[in-house]
Each structure stands twice: as structure tokens, then as C-alpha cells.
Amino acid sequence: MRLNGAQILIECLGEQGVDTIFGYPGGAVLPIYDALYDTKDIRHIRTAHEQGAAHGADGYARVTGKAGVVIVTSGPGATNTVTGIATAYMDSVPMVVFTGQVASSLVGRDSFQEVDITGITHPITKHNYIVKDVNQLPTIVKQAFKIAESGRPGPVLVDIPKDVQVAVTDYKPGQVGYGTIKKLEFNEGISGDVDKAIEAINECKKPVIYAGGGINIAGANEKLVEFAEKIKAPVSCSLMGMGAFPGTHPYYMGMVGMHGTRYSNYAFSNCDLLIAIGARFSDRVVSDVRKFAPGASIIHVDIDPAELGKNVTTPIQICGDAGEVLDIFNENVDLRQENGWNAQIEEWKREYPLKYKMNGTLSPQYVIEKLYELTEGQAIITTEVGQNQMWAAQFYKFTGPRAFISSGGLGTMGYGLGASIGASLGRPDKRVVNIAGDGSFRMNSTELATVSKYKIPIIQLVLNNHSLGMVRQWQDLFFDKRYSQTSATQDVDFVKLAAAYGIKGYKIDKNEQVEEALQNALGAEEPVLIECDIHPDDKVYPIVPPGAGIVELID
Fold first, then answer.
1. What is the tally of structural domains in the chain?
2. Could you tell me which of 108, 305, 329, 504 has the fewest CB atoms within 10 Å of its CB?
3. What does DSSP assign to residue 151?
4. Any domain includes 185
5. Do 240 and 322 meet the contact criterion of CB atoms below 8 Å apart?
6. 181, pLDDT greater than 70
């Protein structure tokens, strides 16, 4: 059949199983939006801003495991997605972003709404393309999704000039195009020190497992539980690894690193074997690398060979899918019995539990604990970035994968609301709660318009301390209480803001009000905002000071 490039794109998206697109129309993508007009099988979500579209696709991808899809126009439409693309890149989230481009004859002439988006996004995508021939489009689309979803997932950008969108050619369903397109290799299989790793596991006395986001991406959660129970090893998670190991399991120790539990950090610093699977040893975990796991041999398992030994010296390295490596471990390691190491972990847990003060005001930690209790741990939690994010990771027990949706590597304030939209659309069977600070929430609160328009039943918790809480905490602890530009000078009534969008809102300032407000929100089949008025001096503890070792915590 004879189709133009825009129609071919929509056909190809259908062939890839795309059911939801997040985007914003504009001049350079008008042919694509015209093709969408007649499409019944693909739902389009028009966000309030292109950054919201990128975060929406990101949240959708994290809860479903499928690539999120974005369509935006050229120039500012494309550049507005950059933060969302970088967020996805840092956290290994599959996403395919289609950007419109000025006609090929106008490229390089500083034309209206022209920008070199492939050049701009080259460092923050797994790969990107500019389509120069309509006949290449089917192959490029297929490659884009394969690259985004295979190996270590990540974002791919496809830039389509307007003349390619309107060019007409013959097309058959399932067709692969022609032309010179870069051949891409995909790493498969397992390589590295597998036998050495099994030997080290069987000989160690004090093992610890460090689980990262790679476990969740690989769907290897049950295999990880089997492995931990077989070798009787305590388990800590990175921020992206939340849910990789059940938060209710007796071997779980919580997060490790800057805001990790004291007993988790002690375990890392006293183990003789650290088994890291699908984790990249970020600076927020390691802190002073010279003091990190000083007495341990380290096994590092990752699907990306570039991560092996990058941040921490790892004598035993295995490159491969986390699930496949765990299969080998579970088949070959010896069954162990609990020993004095397990008793020591339990003693540290009793001596140094996570705690917070009940000082007569509304406690943010209590809000999150009560949310966990009322949802029975079955909600999907998205977060903004800062104190709200750390409290959510510390006090909500995640028992399975793809339930904690947060910007880890880039730390993107303004991420959570857009991500909650995508998460709710991707998993309509789950209640989605976005936990935000007032500073982050202000950044992209315009996405309440999207929530309202599509009646997306998310619950928005705004932990309002009338300041940029985490930055203020650092100013308090490390900058002599010099609160430079972190206190809110003009407060917003978030309940009234929600009402302006037709969204029901509640405001609470006492612990006694929490349960009723949450029950009302959870019982409503509509979007709800709860503003939680908390004290600006509430802090995230424990905290490892900058430059210190992970056992040198303040709490």
C-alpha cells in the first residue's frame, strides 16, 4: 500500500505493540499527528509540557518493562525532553523518543525551530538516528525498540525531518526498509569469572548481597531470594534496587550508603565477600572508596561490561544477565547454615533500628508508614527527589519489583508527578501514589492539568516543609545553618491549586489526621492531593557526611 512517512511510523508503532504515546503536537510533527487522528489502537496522552511527556513515558516503562514512547516537535519541543531523556539514561529505562525536524533542505540553516537534537542527546542516549530516507524508517523504528529494550535498557531518539514524514512510498506490514544503517551488536551470554565466584561464595564466612536495579529489570527477584536463602546472606539494595528483595524478608537490611541503615553499612564494612548484582557502585553508595568494604573480596555481576570495575575495584567480574547468572549460582553454590555472622546482623538490627522523633507535629515518616499499612504494601510509589524520596525508600516496605519509581542517577526534581501519570496508565490495576516535597512539586505541578483531563486516579502527597528540604538539611549540618535561598518566601496553597484543576484536596498538620485523609484518598476513584504540613527541621537520618566512610554516620 502507498503510505507517507508519518503513516508508516504509526503502522510500525502498532507492530511494536505500542498502546500509549506521550507527547505534544507542533508544526514539525503535524503529519504524524494527522496520521494519529485515524488511529484507534494507540492512546495518546497530551501532557502540559514536553518534559512531562518524557517523565510519563519513563514511568510507564518502569512499571511495564516496555519502552515508553514520546512524540514531540522540533526545536524547543525536542530540547524540553532532554532532562527526561537523561533521567531515563542514568536509570537504564527503555524509551523511544520521536522528534520532528525541519525539512532536510532547511537543516543547518538556523531555520525556525531547528536544533541539532541528535547532537545534543548523543551523550544521554544508547543510540540516536536522523531519518534521511522514508524507506529506512521501518528498519530504524524496529532497531530503535530493540536497542532501547535489550541488554542494559535505555533511551533511543529518532529525529524525522518533515519532508520524510510526507514522502510517499510502498509499504507492506512487517516490512524492513533498505539503505545503509549502522549495524549494531548486542551482547548476549555470560562471560567472566563464574567458577571463581562460585568458589569464593562457598569459602566465605561473612557474605553480603548488594542488589541493584538490574535485578528488577531482569525480573530475577525470586531467583535472588532463592540465592540469599541458600547461602544465608543478608541483602541490601541500592535506591534503584528497591523491591529487588522483599522489604519484609528477615535477611533484608534496607538501603546502603549515604542514607542507608546503620546495620547495612556496618555489614558492608565487615563482610568478607560482597556480591553485587545489577548495581553500579554509585558515589552515594560508596562514599569514600578507600574505606568501602575494606576487608571484602567483591564479586560484580552486571550486563554492561563498562560498569565492571568502573567505580570500585572488583577482583571477580561477571558480565551477563542477572537472572541467568543467578541460575548458575543457585545450581552450583553449597547450601549453608546460619552462623555467627547472621547473629551479628540481627544484633545490629536490634541495636540500630530506623527511627524518628514524634515531636507533636506531623511526622513525614509516620505518613509513609501509615500509607504502607493502609495499602498493605501493594501500591506503586513514585517520588520526587530529596527528603521525600529518601523517607519513601526508608519507611515503605517494597516487596516486589517495579513498585518504586524514582529518579536515582540524575536526581531530577519535578520527575514524580509525570512519572506517576505514566505508571498509573501502565498499571491501571494498581493504586499509584506520588510522594513529593513542595520544592520538587512546584517544578512540574502543571501536569495536574494532565491528571485532571484524563481523570488519572493518582494520590499526590505533598510533604510541605516550606523549604528546599534536603538542601536546607545540608546547610544546617555542613554550612553553619546559613540558609541561602532554601526557605520558601511565597507559599502556595496546594489544596487550592488542586481545586483549580478540579482535583479534590486535603490539608493535614497532625499525625492524628493522617489515617482518615489517606483512607479518604484511597477510597476515591479519582485523583486526590494531600498537603502534609511538616516542620522544616525534620531531617533524613542516618546520613553519611561528604567524604566520610559509610560507617561514619550521623543519626
1. 3
2. 108
3. S
4. no
5. no
6. no
